[in-house]
Amino acid sequence: MIAKRIIPCLDVADGRVKKGVNFVNLTDVGDPVEIAAAYQQQGADELVFLDIAATNEHRETMATMVEQVSAQVFMPLTIGGGITSVADMQRILRAGADKTAINSAAVANPDLIRAGAEKFGNQCIVVAIDAAWDEQAQQYRVYTHGGQQATDLDAIEWAKQAVDLGAGELLVTSMDRDGTKAGFDAKLYQALGAAVNVPIIASGGAGNLQDFVDVFAETTVDGALAASVFHFGELTIADVKAALKESGVVVR
Amino acid sequence: MFAIVDYDTGNTRNLKKAFDYLQVPTVLTADPQQLASADAVILPGVGAFAAAMDALKERQLVGVLQGLAQNGKPILGICLGMQLLFESSSEYGEHAGLGLLRGHVAAIPDDLNVKVPQMGWNQNDLQRPNSAFASIDAAYTYFVHSYYAVCPRAEIVATVEHGVTVPSIVQRQNVIGMQFHPEKSGQVGLQQLAAFKEMVSANDFSSN
């Protein structure tokens, strides 16, 4: 049976991991290769790198970083941030990425999903969605540009459209939960799981072991992503997997 | 020197990185002479079956690969490269494969409460206990695929469950296939490539 995935997410600028990663045995807290290797050692199932300074110059640096990581770390790599064209996708996949994540660019130009899926296959195209509950409209609203810009899109409808266009996976962040450590937004992932049949990665809100147990117990998501709880050593991947195994979730 | 077949497919560079890591020199080539003089031939592949067979035909590699296999050259097909080793596939119509292994490639049924493609880590069950790949037993490897091999038990080294029983390693003497991505399966994946390297060095394919 296919295992549920636990995925650390790393912010990158200038080829360096930002916000630091300070769990044990790292000599350089910002080095992507060293950090990726440490996460591989811990049992991470996949790594997501987000380019948070995505200019043209930075994109070249990002490709170089992916080259270096994929020469030393043999696990699936997803790269997002600043990918706005098929050429951008090609560059990052050639460098050794397995998947590219697109967010604002997909909202601005949904055809990019189709073009990417046609050229590289659905499995390479992850559509990242930032969503927040809109109490007035009684729907999850899509935000772009790092959560700065509200759109008119309903997140569930947008997820369906993205999958129809060829998205092979959805990485969905609950902006209501992101940074709160209040747990994943089960209601959001239940609605998404009922709407689409591609893998869904839950993001936003992980604070403790029970949050991971809950998201897999209450929803059909395929993976759970987190940043700070892993980077600061509050939880290890091994802790999370032990807790999941105990609760009957299949993990590697 | 291992030759990685160059026919415009996706995952060649990451495969090369994995062999580099294992200190196995590789050359990316479509030249029959270079393929013939290599210690082993690696057939990668990502994408659709028919397009990949067409790309091999365009480069006149179908007969070359069949001839090499018959002469005992170790051949390792990976992901779609493994599927190409079989007799045929029903991916978007019926298409002939290389016919180096007995069996057919069919769609994973999507009505069995599993997601298709199978994308992620799945746990292997060893079916051939004396195999050089025995370290795969109970270990997880990384899969990305929508089609799977339907083949005689005699060809199967290991399997995973994904609604159906999916062969993850197949072997008939010098012809070997891996459905998962060893270059993306961490230490376990590297271990399987190292096992292949050992088989080639020892010229021992008797474990089936």
TrEMBL record, chain A:
It comes from the Bacteria. InterPro entries: Aldolase_TIM, His_biosynth, HisF, IGPS_HisA/HisF, RibuloseP-bd_barrel. It is found in: Cytoplasm. Keywords: Amino-acid biosynthesis, Cytoplasm, Histidine biosynthesis, Lyase. It catalyses: 5-[(5-phospho-1-deoxy-D-ribulos-1-ylimino)methylamino]-1-(5-phospho-beta-D-ribosyl)imidazole-4-carboxamide + L-glutamine = D-erythro-1-(imidazol-4-yl)glycerol 3-phosphate + 5-amino-1-(5-phospho-beta-D-ribosyl)imidazole-4-carboxamide + L-glutamate + H(+). Pathway: Amino-acid biosynthesis; L-histidine biosynthesis; L-histidine from 5-phospho-alpha-D-ribose 1-diphosphate: step 5/9. One of its GO terms (cellular component) is cytoplasm. One of its GO terms (biological process) is L-histidine biosynthetic process. Heterodimer of HisH and HisF. IGPS catalyzes the conversion of PRFAR and glutamine to IGP, AICAR and glutamate. The HisF subunit catalyzes the cyclization activity that produces IGP and AICAR from PRFAR using the ammonia provided by the HisH subunit. Belongs to the HisA/HisF family. This is Imidazole glycerol phosphate synthase subunit HisF. It comes from Lactiplantibacillus pentosus (Lactobacillus pentosus). The lineage of its organism: Bacteria, Bacillati, Bacillota, Bacilli, Lactobacillales.
TrEMBL record, chain B:
InterPro entries: Class_I_gatase-like, GATASE, Imidazole-glycPsynth_HisH. Its EC number is 4.3.2.10, 3.5.1.2. The active site is at residues 79, 181, 183. Pfam families: GATase. One of its GO terms (cellular component) is cytoplasm. It comes from the Bacteria. Pathway: Amino-acid biosynthesis; L-histidine biosynthesis; L-histidine from 5-phospho-alpha-D-ribose 1-diphosphate: step 5/9. Residues 4-189 form the Glutamine amidotransferase domain. Its main location: cytoplasm. One of its GO terms (biological process) is L-histidine biosynthetic process. It is found in: Cytoplasm. Keywords: Amino-acid biosynthesis, Cytoplasm, Glutamine amidotransferase, Histidine biosynthesis, Hydrolase, Lyase. It catalyses: L-glutamine + H2O = L-glutamate + NH4(+); 5-[(5-phospho-1-deoxy-D-ribulos-1-ylimino)methylamino]-1-(5-phospho-beta-D-ribosyl)imidazole-4-carboxamide + L-glutamine = D-erythro-1-(imidazol-4-yl)glycerol 3-phosphate + 5-amino-1-(5-phospho-beta-D-ribosyl)imidazole-4-carboxamide + L-glutamate + H(+). GO terms for molecular function: glutaminase activity; imidazoleglycerol-phosphate synthase activity; lyase activity. The keyword Transferase does not apply. HAMAP family: HisH. Heterodimer of HisH and HisF. NCBIfam families: IMP_synth_hisH (TIGR01855). IGPS catalyzes the conversion of PRFAR and glutamine to IGP, AICAR and glutamate. The HisH subunit catalyzes the hydrolysis of glutamine to glutamate and ammonia as part of the synthesis of IGP and AICAR. The resulting ammonia molecule is channeled to the active site of HisF. This is Imidazole glycerol phosphate synthase subunit HisH.
